[in-house]
Prior knowledge:
The protein is α+β, with helices and mostly antiparallel strands. Helix content is 52%, strand content 12%. The chain contains 26 helices and 17 strands. Helix 14 packs across helix 15 (349-357), helix 16 runs antiparallel to helix 17 (379-394) and helix 17 runs antiparallel to helix 18 (399-413). The relative contact order is 0.07. Mean pLDDT is 89; it is low at 583-589.
Amino acid sequence: MARISDEFIEQLRMNNDIVSVISPYVDLRRRGKNLIGLCPFHNEKTPSFTVYPDTQSFYCFGCGAGGEIISFVRRIENIDYIEAVKSLADRSGMPMPEDGYDDSLIIKRKRVYEMNKEAAKFFHQTLMSEEGKVALEYYLSRGYTMSTIRKFGLGYAPDSWDSLLRHLRKLGYSNEEVYEADLAKKSTKTDKTSYYDNFRNRVMVPIIDVRGRVVAFGGRVLDDSKPKYVNSSDTLVYKKSLGVFSLNNAKNSNDGQLMVVEGYMDVIALYQAGFTNTVAALGTAFTPEMAKLLSRYADEILLCFDNDEAGRKATERAIQVFGSVGLKVKVIKMTGGKDPDEILKKYGPEKFRSFITGAANDIEYKIIEEKNKYDIESSDGKLNFIKAVAQILSETDDIIAKDVYATKICNELSFSKEALMSQIESLSKKRNFRKRTDKFREIQKEISGLNNKVNPQKSKNLRGTNAEETLLSSLMRNPDFWVKVKGEISAEDFITDFNRRLFQIITERIDKGANIDLSLIADSTFSVEEIDAVKSIEMKSENLNHSVKECRDCIKVIKEEKEKSVKTDMNFSEMGDDEFMKLFKRSKD
Length: 589
């Protein structure tokens, strides 16, 4: 694939200032000539995400994410290189170049979006026809108004093997395209492959992303047959691990708070009742990726899962997931019904609103759940409950919360607060020691290169790899140095494959007189993780002397380490069996 021209990318950068691109996602504030904010790619309480207007780049000192405007858009929107370029071009009113790049994936994705839109229209039109009468009656029986049905684009998949397939074929889509969009399944039971509709005789709910595009579908049976729900699988435009239902509606009406429920039927019922900040996962438990997505639109999460054992387990998992990305969590405890839909039908919106008002924070919820497990009237039950409370309170760093809840529990149970606080402190010390140990191990792995997936060879030769990275960083910042050291090193001298590849790209660009800029180096052949690595190497320049001598010192080390590695490989390859066994025995001794 031919790359997009430097001229186009440079103009794209000029027309899309990085601060204006990042600001909608990150609350930035100025620190000197740069800007800082909380990283959108990992959980943090202290800002470590830095934007550099002078180089039009960004870097997070917490998680190592870094790059420029294209890689930022790729990562934040979860799209590929060409799509990110196109998005930025559209943003600044630039027409994409007519040739020089492979846009086949963009075209494929566009057709899936269009196909999903046509499928949603087909399902909705079928619902409103005589054929969909039974499905419409089902929706109305759940209390949905026609306004709500239209708002969510609800529909019906007819009780037919190929109604949607035939409809989409008339619109010019092939069987294989419909299959790849997960709107059809294929059978190979006979010699000839046959296709049939994925959704049949189900009420249909289109899944719409935050940009208003239909990305997937959920289908529910009209009776109690199994499976009750069928949801779209992963496609070119949809990933289940990122799928959140009705976020397109909830993101604009949340006041910093989102309510999370189990299913899309609950979301629809709550939305109609006025609770428009409600979302749900789609056929899976909430994932860290979903939590990070929601953290862009809210500071607090209200969890409202079904009143059963599965709902309680889901609540416990969700508290951990949302807490891991720094979101405050409260848990709504419902009485008088198993789910929000039933509560609304029985008691109306005001009753449900009272549950929201009485929602417990994550600590309160955990304590209540533990209290329900024990007979606190007995000495044994009381002791076990207090131990459980100590464990819960040891897991928070909020000193005030520890004191408040310890005081409350001890007053209720006539127990010594001093004894409880002593137990909490002991457990906290153990927890903090484990955290420090884990952090130290992670730092050790980082320093040793064991965590480096982009350059896995780094851990085998730290001295040589650090010299490679220092040389690369110096050349990126001082391309004129290359003329002075050009005859002293070649790509073959490099020890690691990734750094060798980067060296070739940089030096070839210098030889051609082209700019050495991250957005020009990191083209479509680089993954976002590789761009992180390139940005990390570039960041080394802040601590360099920026001299030709420094480059030559690096070259000397690279060649020394390369020679050592070659000799080691040769020694092992040329070693006889007896000699190798002697070496093996010595290493064991």
